[in-house]
Design brief:
With 178 residues, the protein is mostly helical. The chain has one domain. The chain contains 4 helices and no strands. The longest helix is centred in the middle third of the chain and has 130 residues, at 2-131. The protein is rod-shaped.
């Protein structure tokens, strides 16, 4: 029995030793797993921080680009407004110059019209005097003929203050022949 007890005791000690070894190995494994896990966590934290920094850098870059685009847009808008103002001023100046040129031409046409009108009156009077020397033509008849001629040229009452280019161009030798 002693031997049996001894054997049981040895077995028990052996089991105890195996269990202790198992616990130590388990503890070592747990520590190793914890260390690996801590390293992975640290690596993931580092990667996350890198990703966050990159994201912040990209956001800053986008914000700067947005500000640059807004600045360029504002500059372009101001440039277009300045160009539009310049164009409007140029157009206004050209319109004024054109209006002045039209006024000057109207005056020239009017003067030319008056000259030709006087020449026509003189020509009518001289033709009338030559063709009808025998009969004395009164001032009324001359006025009637002048009115008739002006009527033919469409220059009576309605066009007294407005001389058109067509009015001037209608006075030709052919149009004077009655």
């Amino acid at each position: 029995m002693c031997e049996e007890m001894k054997r049981e005791r040895e077995e028990w000690e052996k089991q105890k030793l195996e269990e202790k070894t198992r616990r130590e190995e388990q503890k070592k494994r747990t520590e190793r797993e914890k260390q690996i896990s801590d390293e992975q966590i640290q690596r993931l934290k580092s990667e996350m921080e890198g990703i966050i920094r990159e994201k912040e850098r990209i956001e800053r870059q986008r914000q700067e680009e947005l500000e640059d685009l807004e600045k360029r847009l504002k500059e372009e808008r101001n440039t277009r407004e300045d160009q539009q103002k310049t164009s409007e001023e140029t157009l206004k100046l050209l319109e004024e110059q054109h209006e002045e040129e039209l006024k000057r031409k109207r005056v020239e046409w009017r003067e030319e019209y008056e000259r030709e009108k006087e020449e026509m009156k003189k020509k009518i009077c001289s033709e009338t005097d030559q063709g009808e020397n025998k009969d004395i033509i009164t001032a009324e008849v001359r006025a009637e003929r002048i009115q008739h001629l002006l009527h033919k040229l469409h220059l009576e009452d309605r066009h007294l203050n407005k001389l058109r280019a067509a009015d001037v161009l209608q006075i030709t030798e052919h149009s004077l022949v009655s």
